[in-house]
C-alpha cells in the first residue's frame, strides 16, 4: 500500500510540472509550429477580412451619412427662397410701418383740418345770416334814396293806374310812347331828350 502510494502523483500540479519537463519529438514540434503558423495566418487573414468588411460597411455607412448630411439641389434652392422670402418680408414690414406712420400723421392733420373747417363753417354761416340782414337793409336804403332823389328833381310827373309789367323791359320807351299818344298836340316835342329817366316808385305805405 505504501509503495503504490509513493508511485502515484501527489497532486495535479506535480503532473503538470512533470509534463512541462517532457520534451516533444522534433517532428511533433515542427508540426505544431506549422499548425501555429497556419492558425496565426488564418486568424490574420480572417481578421483582415473582417476589418475590410467592417471598413467597407463603415465607408458605406459614412457615405450614406455624408449623402444624407449633404443638402440636395432642391434643399439648397428652398433655403435660398426662404432667405429671400425673409428679406422681402422684413422690407415689406418696414414699408408697412412707414406707411402706417404716414397714415397716422395724415389722420392727425385731417383731424386738425376738420376742427378748423368746423370753426370756419360756423363763421361763414354767421356771416351769411348777417349778409341777408344787410341785403334787406341795403334794399330799403336804396329805395329811400331813389325816392328822395326823385322828389328833388324839377318837373317830376307821376302817373297812376299803369299796370305793372306792361312796360316789359324798357320802361322809358313805353312811357314816351304813352305820352305821344296822350298828347298828340305835342307831336313836335322831343320826348327822347325831355324824358331823362322813367322808373316805378314804391307803393305808399
SSE inventory with pairings:
Layout: H1 2-7, H2 12-21, H3 26-69, H4 73-152, H5 171-182, H6 191-194
Q: pLDDT below 50 for ≥5 consecutive residues: which ranges?
A: 1-24, 34-67
Number of strands: 0
The secondary-structure element order is HHHHHH
The secondary structure category is mainly alpha
| Biggest β-sheet strands, sense, barrel | none
- Globally, the shape reads rod-shaped
What's the helical proportion of residues?
over 70%
Please indicate the percent range of residues in DSSP E strands (runs of 2 or more). under 5%
* Count of DSSP-assigned helices: 6
Radius of gyration of CA atoms, rounded to a whole number: 69 Å
Distance between the termini: 187 Å
Which whole number gives the mean pLDDT?
A: 71
Amino acid at each position: 500500500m505504501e509503495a503504490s502510494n509513493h508511485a502515484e502523483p501527489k497532486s495535479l500540479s506535480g503532473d503538470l510540472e512533470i509534463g512541462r519537463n517532457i520534451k516533444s519529438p522534433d517532428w511533433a514540434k515542427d508540426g505544431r509550429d506549422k499548425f501555429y503558423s497556419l492558425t496565426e495566418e488564418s486568424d490574420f487573414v480572417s481578421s483582415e477580412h473582417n476589418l475590410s468588411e467592417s471598413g467597407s460597411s463603415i465607408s458605406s455607412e459614412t457615405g450614406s451619412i455624408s449623402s444624407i448630411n449633404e443638402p440636395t439641389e432642391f434643399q439648397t434652392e428652398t433655403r435660398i427662397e426662404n432667405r429671400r422670402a425673409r428679406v422681402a418680408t422684413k422690407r415689406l414690414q418696414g414699408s408697412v410701418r412707414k406707411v402706417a406712420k404716414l397714415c397716422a400723421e395724415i389722420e392727425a392733420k385731417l383731424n386738425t383740418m376738420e376742427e378748423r373747417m368746423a370753426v370756419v363753417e360756423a363763421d361763414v354761416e354767421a356771416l351769411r345770416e348777417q349778409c341777408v340782414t344787410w341785403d334787406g337793409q341795403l334794399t330799403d336804403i336804396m329805395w329811400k334814396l331813389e325816392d328822395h332823389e326823385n322828389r328833388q328833381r324839377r318837373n317830376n310827373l307821376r302817373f297812376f293806374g299803369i299796370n305793372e309789367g306792361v312796360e316789359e323791359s324798357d320802361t322809358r320807351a313805353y312811357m314816351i310812347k304813352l305820352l305821344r299818344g296822350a298828347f298828340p298836340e305835342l307831336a313836335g316835342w322831343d320826348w327822347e331828350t325831355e324824358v331823362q329817366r322813367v322808373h316805378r316808385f314804391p307803393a305808399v305805405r
